[in-house]
Structures are given as structure tokens and as C-alpha cells.
Amino acid sequence: MREIPGYYYDETKEKYFKIPPSSTPSNTAYSIKDVKRRRDERDETEARTRSRELRKNRIQKSPFLEHALIGRFLVKEYGRRRLDVAQIFASGLENCEVLWHTFWEFNNTPPLFSIKHRPDISPSCMDAYMVCNDVLYMARTRNGFSTTEEISSESSRVHRFGHSGESTSLSIHQDRTMLAMTWLAGSSNAGIGLAHIPGTFSGSLDDERPTITFGPGTTHGQEVDMWTSTPAPSASSLLFAFGSSHGIITVDKDTLNASWAGPNPNAFHQSPRGVFALEFLANDPSVLLSGCRKGILNITDLRTPVSNQDEDTINHPGSITHIRQLDNHRILVAGLNSSLCQYDLRFRKLDASTQRGGHNLVPTRPILQYPDFKNSYVQKIGFDVDVELGVIATANQDGKAISLFSLHGGQLIKTYKDTLLREDQRIKCLIFAEDVKHRLKNIYWESNMAFKRWAWVGDTDDDSIGASNPLPRND
Questions:
Q1: Which terminus of the chain has a smaller tally of CB atoms within 10 A, N or C?
Q2: With 0-12 CB in 10 A as exposed, 13-18 as middle and 19+ as buried, what is 335?
Q3: What are the residues whose beta carbons fall under 8 Å from the beta carbon of 391, sequence distance 6 or more?
Q4: Strand 7-10 to strand 15-18: parallel, antiparallel, or no bridges (unpaired)?
Q5: d(CA 71, CA 318)
Q6: What average pLDDT does this structure show over 408-430?
Q7: pLDDT tens figures, 132-172
Q8: Which residues fall within 8 angstroms of residue 166, CB to CB, at 6 or more apart?
Q9: How deeply is 189 buried, as exposed, middle or buried, from its count of CB atoms within 10 A (0-12, 13-18, 19+)?
Q10: Quick one: which of 208, 192, 311, 187 has its CA closest to 259?
């Protein structure tokens, strides 16, 4: 049908619908974001249909390759790689127990959270750290993930920092047992919170040490939004780094003093705009990777303030939302424009033969891409990586499902749809977490007043938390 400006044609209902103004809530039917999602889904369906039609006339894979005995010999003779460990892990995943909670604040806003196994207290004890708006919750369950136990605000440590706003990040510094959170406070004196985590041998969540609240100040502008945080490596003199709409803030490990990285903005120096992702290099703790709204990834040595022209950069095809270091040389970068790429820090050549990024930049040539990754418009999306297993877990852009990718192969290997999510809910945070020592990590996410666990059970009959057989390591 013919496109009419300001209207969207619904092929199912066979009629036009007027697109409401941009101020309309994003979850409204036929809003600007909803129309973009519908068009992306339509384009994706059409692309899959065209791909199936093209494959019909191509050479088909021999059915003998699937044979248990003959196929294995042929695959070996063809020189194909052995089965990816990520595929083995994904094939053994099952949706396991849930841990219910009664934090009413989470009813309409999904929290950001982290889970820590506490074997020093008891074999099945776990701590959960949750942030929602300006509120921090620390909860403990001594029976692991059991459907008979519920954690509630009455048995938890709760702290409100003030200047309520949407939560944007949660980070934990394991060596210093400190937690950092950021939120959109709308104030120059708030937006960053620091709190101590109960000590290793503490049996209680009570902690007399004070929490710390501070904001970006006014030296970099009157309206500065805090977007992300990351803990510094143990060898660094810093404790945390924070990304904002106007640059990067660092916190000293010993004094807890906060300062802007680099000189104040002037005619010769402009701070990076819209820093949505941060990652320190573990092998070089003075080097910080920062991903910006325009798709530029800055590689900055914090020991030497430099101008933008002297910084090393990587041009990503879309606005950067997540950065993960894989080893001493490789990093994984996720962003909008459905871009998920691996880069080698030693070889950063521009790829002029590819399509330019969302801000007309010539992208850097990646060493591996993930073509089935889809995220066109969601800046805060659940995302985590288990380097040992070689698995990437990410929430879909509609926030209703989780997709697993092979870190080393680039292919989509499994998708799980959460059918209990309400229409206005989405998966904002997911993590790999170890709940039994020396066992495989499981995937956790918050859904409809409960923490859910997607665990690898393999062929074991052990009913303990996270029971699993060991998998071979990726080389």
C-alpha cells in the first residue's frame, strides 16, 4: 500500500492509523517507537522469506552428514570444526526455579540487579543487589533459588539516595566490596551512589558504614545525565568510572574523591558526548574504553590528559551500548543499528567498502560480526558475556525474549521467550552468575516480581543448585 506521511498502514487490519505525537508514551499502540518496531519486524520477515526462496535453488547439505556414525567421519574428513561448546551449553539449558520478591517498586519498573553466591555463610546462601530509581536493595536468601521462599523488603537492607529518577547502571567492585549505581536524578548534586557490601564473613546485611551520594556538578554543564558505570581493576588507583552525557567521571580508590577525566571543556577540547558504555582493560588498568552515542569508541590512557585528536578510536556502525573485553587484544562491542562486532585492538583499519554507520562514519573493520543480532532503538537492553563458555546472552529489542550467540562462531544458537511478562514489561537486565562454586554459571533475569534462572542441567541427576557436568573449555 502507498505510504502516507503521519500514518501507518496495518496490513493485518487493512487500514491506516494516525501516528501520535512524539510526546505520547512509547508503549502506546502506533506510537513512533511502536511503528518503528512493526516496520523492523515486517522488514525482517520479508528478508527471511526472500532468503528461503533463494536457498531452494542452492546445493543442499547431504543428509548423511547428520548420521551419527557416517556423518561424524565425513565431517572430520571435510576438516570442519568440532561442535562449539556454546552449542552444547545452549542445548542443556532449562528454565528452572524462580525466587519471588515483594518489592512493590519493581511492579512497573524492571530493576537492575546483581547476584553473589555466599558460600562463606552457607552452601546455598545468595545475596541479591537491586536498584530501582534512586533506591538500593540488598536482600539475602539462605535456601538458594527455592519456590518455597520469598524475599521481602522487611528482611532486606534498603537505602534511598534521593532525587528519584530512572536507574541506568549497577556495578560492583569485588576487591573493595563496594557497589556503585547511577540514575537520572535531574540534579547536579545527585545521580551517583556508592555503598558498602556486607563483608565476606558477615552473617547480616546491616552495615554501619555510610553511603555516599554525589552528582556531576556544573563544570561540564547544567544538565548532565549519568548513564553508566564500571569498576576499575584491582591494580588501578581508581575505584569506579562513570559515563555521562558530558564526559567521564572517575573516583579515587583511597580518598573516594570524584573528578572529571581530562581537562574542562574549552575551545580546544570537548569531552565525549553521550558515554553509554565503559570498560577498563584488565591487562592495562590505566586504559579506559568508552563508547559514545555517535558510535565512536575512545581508547584513553587516563594517566595523560589528551585532546580528542590524539585519542585512539574505533568507529562502530551504531550508537554503542555495551563493551566487553574478551582477552588482551579482543573486545566485543554492541550497539544500535543491529550492530554486534568483535574488534582486535592491534588491527584497527577502516572498512570503506562497507555501509557507513548511523552518523555517517566509516566503520572500523571487525574481525567477527553477529548478523542475527537485532537492536535498532533500545539503549538499555539486557546483555552479558561468559568468555569461558563462549556464550553471549542478550535480550531481544522488544524485551520479551533472550537470545544466545556463539562468541567464537557468530551464529544464533538459541532463543527463549518469557511468556509471563506483561505488555508494558521488558527484560532490562540479565547476567551470568555462579551460584555453586566450580559449576557452570547460570543466566538470571527479573520478570514479573521474580528472579528467574535459566540453568544448564546436562544429564546429571544431582538436584543441587546449578548442578551440572563439566563442559570442555573453548580453546
A1: C
A2: buried
A3: 86, 89, 90, 385, 404, 405, 406, 407, 432
A4: antiparallel
A5: 41
A6: 85
A7: 888 888 877 766 554 444 555 445 677 888 888 889 999 99
A8: 109, 133, 183, 184
A9: middle
A10: 192
In this structure, what C-alpha cell is assigned to residue 189? 548534586
Task: Give the full edge-to-edge strand order of the sheet including 258-260.
Answer: 226-231, 238-244, 247-252, 258-260
* Per-residue pLDDT tens over the stretch 282-336: 999 999 999 999 999 999 998 875 544 456 899 999 999 999 999 999 999 999 9
Nearest to 117, CA basis, from 458, 385, 451, 465: 465
Which residue(s) pair with 444 in the sheet? 431, 453
As a whole number of angstroms, the distance between CA 405 and CA 415 comes to 9
List the one residue out of 435, 229, 468, 137 whose CA is nearest residue 444: 435
For the cut 90, the answer to whether the pLDDT of residue 121 exceeds it is no
Contact 262/306 with Cβ under 8 angstroms? yes
Q: Which three cell numbers stand for residue 279?
A: 570498560
Grid cell digits, residue 377: 532503538
Average pLDDT over residues 268-293: 86
Question: Which residue has cell 554503542?
Answer: 320
Q: Give the three cell numbers for residue 44.
A: 525482517
Give the DSSP letter of residue 466. Answer: T
Give, in degrees to the nearest 5, the angle at Cα 311 between 308 and 313. Answer: 105
For residues 160 and 45, give the distance between their C-alpha atoms in angstroms, rounded to a whole number. 45
Model confidence at 463: pLDDT above 50: no
State how far the Cα of 113 lies from the Cα of 429, in Å rounded to an integer. Answer: 7
Distance CA 177, CA 326 (A): 24
Whole-prediction pTM value?
A: 0.79
For residues 298 and 292, the answer to whether their CB atoms sit within 8 Å is yes
pLDDT band at 191 (very low <50, low <70, confident <90, very high): very high
Cell of 8: 501507518
**C-alpha–C-alpha distance, residues 136 and 130, integer Å:** 6
467 has a pLDDT exceeding 60: no
Q: Could you give the strand order of the β-sheet that contains 391-395, starting from the edge strand earlier in sequence?
A: 383-386, 391-395, 401-406, 412-417
C-alpha dihedral, 256 to 259 to 262 to 267, nearest 10°: 180
Q: Amino acid identity, residue 170?
A: L
